Every structure is written in structure tokens, then in C-alpha cells.
Amino acid sequence: MDYSSAPAAASPSDNITIVGAGCFGISTAYHLLKRGFQNITIIERSDELPAKDGSSNDINRIVRTSYPDPFYAQLAIDAIKSWKGDVDIWGDSYHESGVLVVGGSPYADQSYISDVQNGLRLQKLANSAAIRQCFTKDITVGEISHGYLNRDSGWADAGKATLLLTQKVIALGGRLISGKRCVKLVRKDGKTEGVECHDGTIIASSLIILAAGPWSPSVFPELEYKDRSHATGQGIAMVQLTQEEADRYREVPVFTNFGTGFYCFPPTENNIVKMAIHAPGFTHIVNQISTPRTVITHPEDGLFIPRPYARRLREEFAAVYPELAKKAFSNTRLCWYNDTSDGDWIIGRHPTDSSIFFATGGSGHAFKFLPVIGRVVADAVQGLLEPQLMRKFAFDREMTHDTSRDIPGMTREELDTNDLCGPEI
């Protein structure tokens, strides 16, 4: 594809359908509506918003500026300005707890250099004694050799923020249809003119934006999308604290180890500490395509996680907060993402069908950009995205295998449904 000139631009009068009301979809709808687009329809498979098994519906997500890539670093700064400043949209969904970055890796080192260059409020922590200064004396912290604290970062209540932006989209005139699964594209003379839902409903469109997150590879298999990204399940676990414990740990920063992928959060208002590992994850192959396996499709064990993964979570948690790691898990969840091999998103038109537009491939790091990711998509829809970003996010780009999900000793595996566990390991 030639990226030297802008593609055909969509017009504000065009009839646009967005498939998926998660991070990409709802942010794109918001930014298009704010730019004067008048005919925006969002189709969401779930009858509950945000979808209870969607990755954009969770108790927290890290909001950090620490990226070695200058584009993502600056976009994160822009997002945080909105998280903090646009309280009419986000309310109290953002919490600037700071993010403690540890783990010796090129990713961590380059992220620190980027944060320094961007003039952020940083505290270099040269040894374990310095790291302990980030916590009050009544908190037991494991031996962590070095890192840095980024005070201009924190976390967001993902479910709350997604719901608040959804309400804004509806108030701006967006048409949101819930409880309908898209099953195929409607084509005439080789051109896509709409989508058909599971109940036979056909929704005509001049442009269809596929923003279905981890369902993107499987929702329209005729697009031959499966080699561009994969749905991966990422195990998370939670610990329920007592009120006294939560009060002691309330002001701790988000912890993230770029070397092992482990991260955990301060307690929520319900006194829950969540932890996970940003790792290669697990596939679930159905009809040769990795497809999310969730509490909706598998009510009995859709929240369970692989047993070996649960043990590793426990070990990583103990290395940070040994006192809390003695507590039983209160909940588990396999959270599904749409991962590209290079970690960059997929934003742009299908190379052979200009009526199809992609806004997906979040790769486990998109949610922090909820306030602004739709701005990037809207620029692309209107033909305003810079050529270098068009290349970066193109559907048909050549993908490398250099991503923050590359964790030593961990490889992507097919989910073994015979070795899953809930809170009881």
C-alpha cells in the first residue's frame, strides 16, 4: 500500500457502523461525534454495557507514560491530561497513585529515558532501601533492587470510565445497539455495504469500523484477519483485604515489573488488590482462530485461570507484598486481549475493501489511552493521519516480534481447559 498520500476521507454525513463498544469503539464514536459526524451506530454483542466479559470492563487499568516509543509516550501524556482535566467526562475514575517501575530490561531503561526527556515527575531509586521509601513503615515490601517512581501516572477504574464515555456518546446522538452479534458482512458486487446480525437484522453502512477487541479475528473470518493478531487470555487474580489492611496499603503506587511482566494495584474502594502478568498469554483455538473463552460462553469455569499461572502469580505477589501474599485469592479472571506480534495497534482500512476499517489490536496496553485513542482513529478515518503513523498501524504492515509481552521463560500456549482453577489453587 502507498502511504505517501492520504486515503479517501470519510464525510460527516456518511453512515458509519462501529462493531464493538469497548475502548477503541466507544472512544472512536465519541471523537467522530465531536467532529460533527451525524450517523454513528455502535453494535455491541453484549446486552449489558460495558460488556461484563470485555477487557474494557474491569476494576482498574494502569495509566502510565513509561514507553520507549515516543508516540505512545506522548499520547499517554495527552491521555492523562484528559483523565485529570476533563472531570465532566471521567469524574473520579482516574487515580494518580504514581507507578513504580522496576525490572532490569531494555524496555524499562528506555522508558525511563523517555520519561526524563518528557519532563515528568520522577524519582530514581538506586537500591532496595530507596524503594522502601515509597512505602510507609508499616508495609512489608520484598527485596527489590532498583527502579523509579513516576508520579505523573496511576490507574483508572476501567468499567466506570467506559460507562461514562458511553453515556457521553449517547448524549451526543450516537446510536448504540446492544445484544446483537454481528455474524457476516453484507456485500454487493464485491463491496461491503453493511453487516448482518445473528437475528437477521441488516445494518447498512458506507463504512464499517471493526473494533471488536479480541473478537476481531473471529467475528468476520472472511476478512482473513487471523494472521494479523490473536486473541490471548491473560490471567488475573484478586485478594480481598480487610478494612485495616486496605487503609494501610491505600496509598501505595501501582507496581509494575517490566522484567517479569508482573503488576499489581493499590486497593480499590472495595478493598480489593488485583494482580496480573503482562505475558504472551494463552490462545483458545476454535475453527483455526483464537477465540475468547469467557464467563458468557462458559458460565461454569469461564473465570478460571491456568493453574501453573496462578502459582506464578502467587510467587510474584509474594516477592512484592509478602504479607498480603499469604491471603487466599478472592477472585480470578481470564481477561482477553487482541495482540499483534509487534505490540502496535491496527488502525486503517482493509487493503482490498475500503468499506472496512480496523480499530483494534490493543495488545494489552490500549485502555490507558481511552480519552484519546479515538482521536487517532478519527484522524485515520478522515484521512488526516500522518504517513508514518499510517505505516505503523497498517493492516498489511510487516510485523516484527519485539513487544513488551516477551517475558523470559514464558511462551504463548494453547489453553488447557483441564488444568484451570478458580480462587482455590
From TrEMBL:
This is FAD dependent oxidoreductase. Residues 404-415 have a biased composition (Basic and acidic residues). It comes from the Eukaryota. The keyword Flavoprotein applies. Keywords: FAD, Flavoprotein, Oxidoreductase. Residues 16-379 form the FAD dependent oxidoreductase domain. Residues 404-425 are annotated as: Disordered. Its cofactor is FAD. One of its GO terms (molecular function) is flavin adenine dinucleotide binding. Belongs to the MSOX/MTOX family. It holds the Pfam family DAO. Gene3D superfamilies: D-Amino Acid Oxidase, subunit A, domain 2, FAD/NAD(P)-binding domain.
